[in-house]
Amino acid sequence: FLNFKNEQYIITGGIYCNPIKVFNLKGKKKKNINDSSNIYLIDIYYDNKLYKNYIVTTNYGYVQSYDYNNNKQFQKYNANDYSKHHSLIIFQKEEIVKLIDSSYDGNIRIWDLYTGLLLKRIKISDEELYNICLWNNEYLFVGCKNVNLNNYEENKISGIIKLVDIDEGCIVNSLDGYNYGVFIIKNF
Asked: Is the Cα torsion angle 15, 9, 97, 51 positive or negative in sign?
């Protein structure tokens, strides 16, 4: 939800579903935001200092942000791979607003939201990474789908949750026992 002057909006997008559309809760379209890519996830970030809203999307091969006020692309976070970027989190730590995304190629990437600079890449494994969840601004829960290629014909696909120390860039713990990939993680 975007929140402007006590009015809430819904943002929609998806695969083969462009442009991004913004509606109020009564279904009246507020605006379109031009995007020609396949979107896997949409999130928003409100800058309290600049009083600006940013819309951030995960896509095939990159993540990008839009300045909601002027309806233009703000940054493109390009890892020069052609992997699907599945999930993202935006948070502030040490004066830097960071964007963290997970991708199909087994990497977590941490970006500076404003400059688009890649701050860190954490290689989790060759597993497909899906949803991520931040814990205490220090750790990241990562939902994975592990495909054992040696036994692929036997359907040896399992789900794993990995706990990652963001600063150290290492896996602290793993929780396994899921029948398939872990696509959704939420902490309360």
From this structure: positive
3-state helix, strand, coil in the chain (%, to 5): 5, 60, 35
* Angle 91-121-188 from CA coordinates, rounded to 5°: 35
pLDDT in tens, 139-187: 998 887 765 555 444 555 567 778 899 999 999 987 776 555 555 566 6
94: left (phi over 0), alpha (psi -120 to 50) or beta: left
pTM across the whole model: 0.82
Q: Which amino acid is present at 160?
A: I
- What CA–CA distance (Å, rounded) separates 60 from 46? 24
Q: Are 86 and 129 in contact (CB under 8 A)?
A: yes
In this structure, what token pair is assigned to residue 37? 């890519």
Cβ partners under 8 Å of residue 127, min gap 6:
106, 144, 145, 146, 147, 160
- Give how far the C-alpha of residue 31 lies from the chain's centroid of Cα atoms, to the nearest Å: 23
The encoded tokens of residue 111 equal 């970006």
- How close are the terminal C-alpha atoms of the chain, in Å? 19
> How far apart (Å, rounded) are the C-alpha atoms in residues 41 and 130?
11
Phi, psi of 151 (to 5 degrees): -120, 30
- 55, burial (CB in 10 Å: exposed 0-12, middle 13-18, buried 19+): buried
On the CB side of 167, CA atoms within 13 Å amount to: 6
